[in-house]
Structure prediction request, 617 residues.
Amino acid sequence: MITISNLKFHYPNADFALQIDKLKIESGEKVALVGPSGSGKTTLLHLIAGILLPQEGEIQIGETSFHRMSDADLREFRLNHLGLIFQEFELIEYLNVQQNLLLPAKLQRSDKAEEEAQFRILPLAKKLGIEDKLKAHPKSLSTGEKQRVAIIRALLSQPKTLLVDEPTSSLDEAHAELVIQLFDDYCETQNATLILLTHDTRLLQHLDRVIDVQQFRTAYAEGANP
Amino acid sequence: MKSILFLAWQYICYHKLKSSIMIASMVILFIFPLVVSLLLDEYDQRMLERSRQTPLLLGSRGNPYDLLLKSLYFRKGNSPNIPYGLTHKILSEKKTLAIPLHIKFTAKEAPLVGTTLDYFEFRNLKMEAGNLPSFLGEVVIGHGVSQDLNIKIGSTLLTDQRNLYDLAGQVPVELKVVGILSPAHSIDDQAVFMDIKTAWIIEGLGHGHDDLRSDKGKPFVQSQEGQHLKANVGLNEYVKITPENMESFHFHGNQNDFPITSLILLPQSDMERVILKTRYNVDGGTYQVLNPLETTEDLLGIVFRIKKLFDLHFIIVATSTASLMLLVVLLSLRLRARERETLHKLGCTQSTVFWLFTTELLLLLGVSIIFSVILALSFVAFTPDLLQNLG
Prediction:
């Protein structure tokens, strides 16, 4: 379960701020974060991922509370328990697809994690139709292919929480269907929590709940509470 | 660390051109001081080794470095002659072995060294083929001369004329190669050795011609005073010493007064060494006795003072190159801000990202150093002539 309580966050030198008194997302729940551009969807996703840290409040995933963790522990937690799919895919240009897929496992400094990830690459790559691109560098991939690589990378470590930013924005109809099916199957078999940001209405019907992030958005004034 | 090394190496391999330029810049920076340092070390060792093998050197008073370089390294230099008679004088005391050296002429630019057979034993020079010179006009050549000039046993060598416009001066003499020395890995490889009397013939102190009393020589008699016959300019002087005309070669004057460049002295005891130095190193004297090791160390002191200038130059160039590289790295870091963000999002701590970029630089530095060392060692190894010429 993901619990956010009394969270206050603002970017330095900007009037953007988020304030969440209480938000709970149950284990295995599939949630969409929606809202207009600039409403703070990506910010909230990054807060849940521990990439950004709130100025106040607490984010708890299972028994783990972020604000009590060191930078190194947070990193370990993110690598082991969270699957992140970014809107910009975040692929390393000098690594080929296979190396990009294995990078999180490599960063875990665990040979076992790397072996397991290696074992899972091919079935997933086949499922999303990029098995012939494993030796290619990101530069030679289409946007859709890059997105599929990012999705596979997030699923390789079999995380219990998937945080996904616009997973179907660059995909054609057929591949979008495939990805939706993949997320459905994954969450069902792994009892994983799915939090995704999307403008794609096709996705919403597969989800349990839709949260409008706009409700958390406030203006920040220095010296005042957001 | 494994993942950092992996990422750093992948980055270097992917950006081949950029990495190559960085490596090339650093190799260019490192290789020059490295080669200079290696060459000077080798030069230092070779010079000291040869000097260490030579206990004492007796020559004319003057510049000790000229005497040392001419006698030990067969360099051209202004070192006045000493009389050959000193050899007999020292040998007659039976406490020191004296080896005369006559170094003045060249053949095809290889130095001609007139000496005695003791020199070959003293320098431990072995024959690769043929014999040591036994007769006038015979020479043995160093291994390098044989290779460079493609000279074999039985070939002939013509001495170089020292001054083309000196028509009345020394005439070229044809020398017969009777032996080739094994590689000595010293300047001996680049020299031509002969008996000291052959050197005097080249100098014009001895010569061979038709007998003025024979039917062939009679037409060239200009005048006669008692038993002494004086020839005119038409008399044929031999430029080649053959078994047939060898008997006719003779020297005019007292051989004890004939010139030599120096004497290598091998005293039998420390006491004798001190006596020789005391006897010949007198104020206002004609001669000097050098300890070649001390003189070489003095000389190398000058060389290494010059090396300090190279070192200073290297430090200045290295500082300026390092500043430029720092600029390049800082610009590169700005360009790679997105990559840093990605790595952070994927789970890299800031320190991991810092170590990743540092490792890339260290890898490039390491590869550059390895290349520089390999290239410098290859340069030194594959240019033995350079060192040979140095000493």
